[in-house]
Design goal:
- By secondary structure, the protein is an alpha/beta fold.
- About 40% of the residues lie in helices and about 15% in strands.
- It has 12 helices and 10 strands.
- β1, α2 and β2 form a beta-alpha-beta unit.
- The longest helix is centred in the N-terminal third of the chain and has 16 residues.
Length: about 280
């Protein structure tokens, strides 16, 4: 073990830091891919060489997001002496800023016709969108221990924040990977407006364009949702409202979300606490 660490340390010193590649962790989704691509894009704009190592899951997304292709390198094309970096690159304010997001979103996300058109066609000013992340955050015991919180109490609290309470809505869209859970646990939303749509049976890309089209968006602790929030904020030039939880994960920074845009409204606490 010590010999392996010594070899890795020595390689880290010898490898060419002017030709960095970012290691892609296994079993991640679009939100995490976008943070890696954003970091490569930031460095490319500075005139640096930086590529993200592709994976089979990433290749599936690149068919829908071809503007990211030049930021990616195949594993077999990585030179032995190229510098490797392993990080999520998700820290708002230190690893990226709003100007980085705007450039990336305008030139690499909204520049894709089917995404921009989907956002424009779906936009409804008097619709409130909620993104409820469930999936493995709640079905896998380890993830549940890190990411779970009382979503029902959080949504009740989020709807009381000024950006939501001060607006009138004709409908609510609940976009989730578990619409059955949402329709059961959040059925009380139907008393808040004339129409509630429980959106589930669509592709992740359709969910992304729906959420990105909302000028009032309530998120949970999902990187996918954060990116929809970033995109909506860029698309509406900051004239929209995004509400997000203070909490992200118990095993990082004491639970505090470090990805949130300072322009967003943050729900700092909920009844019973984040561990309730």
């Amino acid at each position: 073990m010590m010999l392996t660490k010594w070899i890795r340390s020595g390689l880290g010193i010898l490898r060419d830091r002017d030709r960095s590649v970012l290691i892609t962790p296994p079993a991640i989704g679009l939100g995490n891919f976008l943070y890696l691509w954003l970091q490569a894009d930031i460095r490319k704009r500075r005139g640096e060489y930086c590529k993200v190592i592709s994976t089979p899951d990433m290749e599936g997304w690149l068919t829908h997001l071809p503007t990211m292709r030049d930021l990616v390198i195949e594993p077999q094309a990585v030179g032995f002496m190229q510098h490797r970096e392993r990080d999520g690159f998700q820290n708002y304010g230190s690893e990226f800023r709003r100007k980085d997001l705007d450039a990336f979103i305008q030139e690499r996300i909204l520049a894709i016709p089917h995404i921009k058109t989907g956002i424009e066609e779906h936009h409804a000013p008097r619709t409130l969108a909620l993104n409820i992340r469930r999936g493995d955050f709640y079905s896998v015991p380890e993830h549940r221990g890190n990411y779970s919180f009382d979503v029902v109490e959080y949504i009740r609290t989020a709807l009381l924040t000024a950006p939501v309470a001060e607006r009138e809505f004709d409908r609510i869209e609940v976009v989730s990977d578990d619409p059955a859970w949402c329709s059961l646990k959040l059925a009380w939303l139907e008393s808040r407006t004339d129409e509630v749509e429980w959106v589930g049976l669509e592709s992740p890309l359709q969910h992304f364009t729906r959420l990105s089209s909302a000028n009032c968006l309530v998120l949970t602790n999902s990187t996918f949702g954060y990116w929809a929030g970033y995109t909506a904020t860029s698309f509406f030039s900051g004239r929209n409202a995004v509400i997000a939880p203070w909490f992200h994960a118990r095993n990082i920074l004491g639970g505090q979300a470090f990805q949130l845009d300072p322009q967003w409204t943050v729900v700092d606490s909920i009844p019973g606490g984040w561990d309730g």
